[in-house]
Design a protein that fits this description.
By secondary structure, the chain is an all-alpha fold. The protein is built from twelve helices and two strands. The protein has three domains: 46 residues, no CATH class; 93 residues, no CATH class; 159 residues. 69% of the residues lie in helices and 2% in strands. The longest helix is centred in the last third of the chain and has 50 residues.
Length: 345
């Protein structure tokens, strides 16, 4: 029954990750046995309304998962799943807000230095630890009050009593054989790494040493220089990275990091294709310029021209590949939508 599968899927998200599969297998066997007995009594399958009522009697997914949580010293199993959920959201928001504020402060400050970046990075763990400590303290207080004064404070798990099976998320697609879904730790690591990369990209224009290393001395001594208009496209790339990072944060907060929607990939590729197309049709294909044209024209003009032609040809090929990939993703998304609309309800 699809509703039961959706219910078990929601329960699994709140179980200890080491035992998720074993617990779900045991729970599925018990619930399917109960379902068979109920249908045998009626002599027919349950109607959608009866199935929803039966699932609702089981309790919310959070409450069902609480029965399989180990006893905690400060926080009991009844509210432990809610504690983990709030802790993840609070930590993620603290990480995102602090990184954004620190980046803006460094960029808009009087000078950008490696010491300022390192100082901001070293403060990050303490910020996350403080947020985790406050969340733990609040939930420990709630557990204490609910346990010691049940008459004045009803059980916290009662908060989930008014849930409805209709709010269960749809079934997630089954991963292909040999593939593994990303874990929450991997998703958080990707977001943290994304913030680091975004900060690095913002610092590169003022500190090109961060990208080229000792080779920056060769660039300064070279008779060639990059067209200043390329800096505009560089900031477009920075903006694209910021957009992707924001989307990852939203997926992480929504609990959808394992299955990002196709819209995210399409929008990212579309925004990535725009600067490529504009660069491919840059007037004169002047990507590389002579640093001193009045003196170096006779010696390096041919080298600069051949370099620009090579870059132009490479960008054209890259544009074709990206546009074809974008068209393929759009076509797949449309086919998926059409198939979903044709399925009987």
């Amino acid at each position: 029954m699809e509703l039961l599968d959706r219910y078990l899927q929601a329960v699994k998200k709140h179980l200890p990750w080491q035992r998720q599969d074993d617990i779900i297998a045991e729970l599925r066997a018990n619930l399917e046995s109960q379902l068979d007995e109920k249908q045998a009594e009626l002599g027919r399958p349950l109607t959608p309304a009866e199935a929803e009522a039966w699932i609702q009697q089981l309790g919310s997914p959070v409450r069902m998962a609480s029965h399989y949580q180990p006893q905690q010293y400060l926080i009991g199993p009844a509210i432990y799943p809610a504690y983990l959920h709030v802790l993840r959201i609070a930590s993620m928001w603290a990480l995102a807000i602090y990184t954004l504020v620190a980046t803006i402060t460094i960029v808009l400050g009087p000078s950008i230095s490696g010491a300022a970046v390192a100082q901001a990075a070293f403060r990050l763990p303490s910020i996350v630890i403080q947020v985790a400590a406050w969340v733990t303290l609040v939930f420990a207080a709630l557990e204490f009050i609910a346990t010691r004064y049940p008459g004045k404070c009803p059980p916290i798990a009662g908060f989930y009593a008014n849930w409805s099976p209709s709010t269960l998320p749809p079934l997630e697609p089954v991963p292909a054989p040999g593939t593994k879904r990303p874990s929450y730790t991997q998703a958080v690591t990707e977001v943290i790494f994304g913030f680091v990369v975004l900060t690095w990209l913002v610092l590169v224009p003022r500190h090109p040493f961060l990208m080229f290393g000792p080779g920056i001395a060769f660039l300064h001594a070279s008779p060639f220089r990059l067209n200043p208009i390329l800096l505009t496209f560089y900031w477009w790339i920075v903006g694209l990275n910021a957009l992707q990072l924001a989307w990852r944060c939203i997926d992480l907060l929504r609990g959808a990091w394992q299955h990002p929607g196709p819209l995210r990939h399409i929008v990212s590729k579309l925004f990535g294709a725009i600067p490529l197309v504009l660069l491919a049709y840059l007037p004169g294909s002047a990507y590389v310029l002579l640093r001193h044209p009045e003196t170096d024209m006779s010696r390096y003009a041919q080298t600069a021209d051949s370099t620009n032609r090579g870059i132009h040809a490479g960008l054209q090929v890259l544009c074709v590949i990206v546009i074809l990939q974008l068209a393929w993703d759009v076509a797949q998304a449309l086919v998926s939508v059409l198939r979903g609309s044709q399925q009987p309800r």
